Amino acid sequence: MPLQIHNSLSGKKEDFNPIHKGQASIYVCGPTVYGDSHLGHAKAYISFDIILRYLRYSGLKTFYVQNITDVGHLMGDGEDGEDKLIKRARELEQEPMAVAEYFSRRHFEAMDRLGVIRPDISPRATGHITEQLEAIEKLIELGLAYESNGSVYFEINKDPKYGELSNRTIDQMIEGTRKEVLKEKRHPGDFALWKRAEPGHLMRWHDPFSGWGYPGWHTECVVMSTRYLGDEFDIHGGGMDLKFPHHECEISQARGLKKPFARKWIHTNMLTIDGQKMSKSLGNFVSLPELFKNFDPLIVRYFIAASHYRSVVDFNEKALHSAEISLKRIHQTVIKLRKLRPKDAKPSGKRFKEFQRRFCQAMDDDFSSPQALATLFDLNREANNLLSEKNPDLEAVTDAEYLFSSLGGDVLGIIPEAIQTNYSEDHMIPIMEVLVELRTSLREKKDFESADLIRDHLKKIGIVFKDTKEGTTWEIEKNN
């Protein structure tokens, strides 16, 4: 079947037919760089990375744009609070752009460790002020926006389709809105395109409205996406939390400017911590640099890939340990295959074709990475059956290793070219393989006492056996 994508705008799965044959244009909202990237960022950008990788695997040439928000993301309800970057700069006693530069580098370093492919372009909001002002002035000329006290607002009542993405009515949008915003806006739901800068404001640009101001959050992505991808492009993505108001406001501006804009909208769902929304106020905020002190980034990537991008993922250390065991099971098989595979051998493509078909069938169904991963585990079982033979067919070994590397490596990004077995020294692997085989043989003979004796003695030195229906794996216990 053709690739189908769940379009958030229609609420349905739709066939993916790129605007330009053989090419896919993608825009994903990037981070606001006032602090370290966190687990929520990991979920979103790993999910889009898998989507990007599969589009490439499918034979499409991709052009991927992901912005950097370094001005205009306001606190409070997103319209009238202080700019997040300026607040953080004041706390750190640094220039705002120095803060933006520092955390931009930190973000990409964290993404690199997670195996996330870098965008083709990472445009910054501050680098596109002129284009934002041009778009804002055009919206005023069209009667869709208005200037008030030096600031400019988009008038949502002028767009009858406003709210179609988030399925909200205008009355629902103004619930809980602070009363004081009514003084400057014609309607409390009107959103800021440009804000008047008070004297001494650290980030401001000359404008035709009040003399000095700075952009609101919602115009930058309209400007930058169409600047680099054209007025109509294939995919616009972001986290579920951006659906309203950010993406809703983007669509209204693009519609007002007569731009067809994005054909498909993809939203990744949220990540919770032990069932609760991640929040600094709850004390459960997990930044990626802190997480990487205790967990291999590849384990984090596997943990994210094991859930569908539209599903809520609940993070806890037990889940990460489980992900580590599962990933290790695949890695141990791939290590064995790579040792047996003849040097420079080319895959024949004759063996295990059904696994490739099932993998692609899963990914064609709205990028269903959990089902694709389940197919890899089925392949893992077949590969282990192959490896258990006295003289394994080397052509089959080559085909199996190739599929693991292409599907698990190139697409899911969980099988690197060089697998780091940091959970054990290389010389331990053959020894443990013998012990696993011996214990399996004892269990098959129903000599459970001897099998348990091996398990218990290894437990004392910190090595734990894990018995599953797929077989037995082992791991070195981490010190608590």
What characteristic shape results from the CA principal axes?
elongated
CATH topology title of one domain: Rossmann fold
Segments where pLDDT lies below 50 for 5+ residues? none
Average pLDDT figure? 90
CATH architecture of one domain: 3-Layer(aba) Sandwich
Largest sheet: 5 strands, antiparallel
Structure notes:
This protein is an alpha/beta fold. Among the domains are: 4-268, HUPs (Rossmann fold, 3-Layer(aba) Sandwich); 424-480, no CATH class. It is built from 15 helices and 16 strands. The strands form 5 sheets. The chain has a 5-stranded antiparallel β-sheet with strand order 5-6-7-9-8, with helices on one face. Strands 4-3-10-11 form a 4-stranded parallel β-sheet, sandwiched between helices. Strands 13-12-14 form a 3-stranded mixed β-sheet. The longest helix has 24 residues, at 317-340. The chain is elongated. It starts with a strand and ends with a strand.
